[in-house]
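Hi R.,

Here's the input for the magnesium ion complex you asked about:
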Amino acid sequence: MADQAVLRLENVRKVYSAGEIEFEALHGVSLDIGQGEYVAVAGPSGSGKSTLMNILGCLDVATEGRYEIAGQDVGQMDESELAELRCRQIGFVFQQFNLLPSMSAWRNVELPLSYAGVAPAQRRRRAIDALESVGLGDKIDNRPGQLSGGQQQRVAIARALVSEPTLLLADEPTGNLDTASAKEILGIFDQVHRAGRTIVLITHDWDVARRAGRSIEVRDGTILEGGGRA
Ligand code: ADP
Ligand code: MG
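And here is the predicted structure with magnesium ion in place:
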């Protein structure tokens, strides 16, 4: 096992229960992800990718097994500690962008900093810097509805990175985009990776997954390293 693992899953099982019915979505997954790695998690619909992402992002907890971020055992944390961990250590990017439509781009981007208690003037400066880093320095006052899908996803990436998280976690970030915009977004992920950030990118598309340095295949709730290359 890598000594520098920032994320470590050990025998993680996830069982969903609805009344009498139980469904095991992850069957004992173990995985180490090192500092600065760019890892794609790929697999068909229903294989357990979002379940895995929710656990990695501390949005849900494992039924059994252990999950550590930067050496901290997530299973021992209460809800407020988990919220704090999400806020400080993880930047999320979703397929649907999840921007607030009534707020300008920079207001959307500064939001995580306001939750973290950063002073207003510094929030604005950092939000603008983050938007410039994704090539949107001239769109800071635009609302999401005035931006293309690719531009909206770039705002979402700026928002995910503005608090300088340990991990950038993206679930199907190109799933709603045309080919050209998707390419642009993957270019930004390459740039974020070169800057030393740890990235986990979840996708059903192997062409997207192959952009990452390492790929992991999820199939029916289990994982295979370097899968999908046949
Ligand atoms: P993917 O993201 O790869 O499409 P998911 O992680 O969303 O897969 O789902 C994996 C499996 O777990 C699927 O069979 C799905 O139906 C099931 N599942 C997901 N969420 C729930 C839930 N809340 N309750 C019951 N079953 C669920
Ligand atoms: Mg999914």
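One thing worth noting: The chain has one domain: 5-225.

Cheers,
M.
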